[in-house]
Write a structure and sequence with these properties.
By secondary structure, the protein is of the alpha+beta class. It has 7 helices and 16 strands. The strands form 4 sheets. Strands 2, 4, 5, 6, 7, 13 and 15 form a 7-stranded antiparallel beta sheet that branches. A 5-stranded mixed beta sheet has the order 3-1-14-8-9, with no helix packed on it. It has a two-stranded antiparallel sheet with strand order 10-11. A hairpin with an 8-residue loop joins strand 8 and strand 9. Helix 1 packs antiparallel against helix 7. Keywords: Membrane, Transmembrane, Transmembrane helix.
Length: about 325
């Protein structure tokens, strides 16, 4: 190696080691605190790679972790009452993705389903995330951050909305709660047609019912201000059924009928999302697809660990020794 090449390499290694230019991915950890098995579904955005799985079984008390690269976007949800054979063929009563397999293989959740949505390293390098009921609701879910800086608030819904779901929105024998858009198809509920803008699509009695139960979650398509959250450099924990049975029962009145003429506004396809809340007994709301909210470069950088810096120091020292020996 000539001196010029050597010192160029040395400069790059030193810059990497001591200025902290180290692009890292994000860890997603799924936790099942339900009293039953949940089968999470995973869907990557159109420009994002698939994670290690697109659907898996998560038994009661189970956890599983995935790594996502910088700039990844996608959504997660829980499927319930599933039956899969030894080959992985089967289906689920709620949240089914229609693939006929344990893995969703690029297919999204069939409404109604509670959704967690992420865009990593979006505008200004921030992660954008929400929990959405725009596609309805099937089980309690929260998103918590681990590490990171910025707002980094917890979001989701602790309430079992299936117990307070209006009769006209009930699905799967009370195992899920539809959005008003899916139930009725009216433009004012779907934020479509002449109701396709924030100025014309407003909260309705249905969306307000969800919002009162889970004030930080998306309750209709244009609920962004109170339901979209940001964090930088964090990992995330997605927990199914985070609340205790006593909390659920104390917060779930008997369901009634809200009335078909006073429904909640939702995005096309009835997507409802939930926003973030920190420690509140009620965390839930409808939300919009975050890939459209957080565009920008994927510039999240994290400092290398002390161990990495030490290792790089010894690499540089070794190169110096070989040069002058």
């Amino acid at each position: 190696m000539n001196n010029s090449s050597f010192f160029s390499t040395l400069f790059l290694l030193a810059n990497f080691a001591f200025q902290g230019v180290y692009v890292a991915g994000t860890t997603f950890t799924f936790v099942n605190k339900c009293g039953y098995t949940v089968w999470p579904g995973l869907l990557a955005g159109a420009s994002s790679p698939k994670l290690d799985s697109t659907g898996f079984e998560l038994p009661q008390g189970g956890t599983r972790t995935f790594q996502a690269p910088a700039g990844w976007s996608g959504r997660f949800w829980g499927r319930t009452n599933c039956n899969f054979d030894a080959s992985g063929a089967g289906s689920c009563a709620t949240g089914d993705c229609g693939s006929g397999q344990l893995g969703c293989n690029g297919a999204g959740a069939t409404p109604p389903a509670t959704l967690a949505e992420f865009t990593l390293n979006g505008s200004d390098g921030k992660d954008f995330y929400d929990v959405s009921l725009v596609d309805g609701y099937n089980l309690p879910m929260i998103v918590e951050s681990s590490g990171g800086s910025g707002g980094c608030e917890t979001t989701g819904c602790l309430v079992d909305l299936n117990r307070r779901c209006p009769t006209e929105l009930q699905s799967e024998g009370g195992g899920a709660c539809r959005s008003a858009c899916e139930a009725f198809g009216n433009p004012e509920y779907c934020c479509s047609g002449e109701y396709s803008s924030p100025a014309t699509c407003k909260p309705t009695a249905y969306s307000q019912l969800f919002k009162s139960a889970c004030p930080r979650a998306y309750s209709y398509a244009y609920d962004d201000a109170s339901s979209t959250f940001t964090c930088s450099g964090a990992d995330y924990i997605i927990t199914f059924c985070p609340s205790t049975p006593s909390q659920k029962s104390s917060m779930d009145p008997s369901p009634g009928s809200v009335g078909a003429n006073s429904g909640s506004s939702t995005a096309s396809g009835g997507v409802t999302e939930s926003g973030s809340g920190s420690g509140s007994a009620s965390l839930m709301a409808d939300g919009s697809w975050l890939a459209n909210l957080a565009s920008g470069d994927s510039t999240n950088t994290r400092h290398p660990t002390i161990a990495l810096q030490i290792a790089l120091f010894f690499v540089i020292a070794s190169l110096l020794t070989s040069l002058y020996n």
